[in-house]
Amino acid sequence: MSSYWLVKSEPSAWSWDQMVAAKTTEWSGVRNPGALINMKQMKKGDRAFFYHSNEGKCVVGIVEIAKTFYADPKDEKSGLVDMRAVEKLPSEVTLAAIKQDPALKDMVLVKNSRLSVQPVTAAEWARVCKLGGLKSGN
Fold it and tell me: Which of helix, strand or coil describes residue 35?
């Protein structure tokens, strides 16, 4: 069974457009212990929302885990997963919209917005996909 996640990036550091252009990339720079625990739980084929943090504060696309957690050769305190771009949401889903939706009141993004890699429940995944204009919920 696949799991769902949300990964954050500041657009000035790594944007959705850069993710799409790269097709597949290492997801690096994560040092928070909680976020690293989440990355270690990611499985190949899991899906994640790509969230623009600080600038924009919105879910903009969906990525898929292409390679599970492995050691970062440049930083022994960190690790990596590889992700590939899947699709852009037809409509961005803002943090404000997520906070206003009663179905998303317990989402980690609402309760611990600073965590850069976080789990998303299947129900939250389906709701955010719907808000973003996706019919299938991928």
Answer: helix
Which of the following CATH numbers is that of domain 4-131: 3.10.590.10, 3.40.109.10, 2.102.10.10, 3.30.1330.10? 3.10.590.10
Alpha helices in the chain (DSSP H): 16-22, 33-41, 95-100, 108-111, 122-131
Name the pTM for this structure: 0.94
Question: Do residues 5 and 51 make contact, with C-beta atoms less than 8 angstroms apart?
Answer: no
pLDDT one-digit tens code per residue, 48-97: 999 999 889 999 999 999 999 999 999 888 899 999 999 999 999 999 99
What angle (nearest 5°) sits at the alpha carbon of residue 53, between those of residues 65 and 111?
Answer: 85
Nearest to 85 by CA among 122, 114, 113, 49: 49
Among 44, 50, 49, 87, smallest CA distance to 66 is for 44
Domain range summary for the chain, segments of one domain joined by +: 4-131
Alpha-carbon gap, residue 99 to 123, rounded angstroms: 15
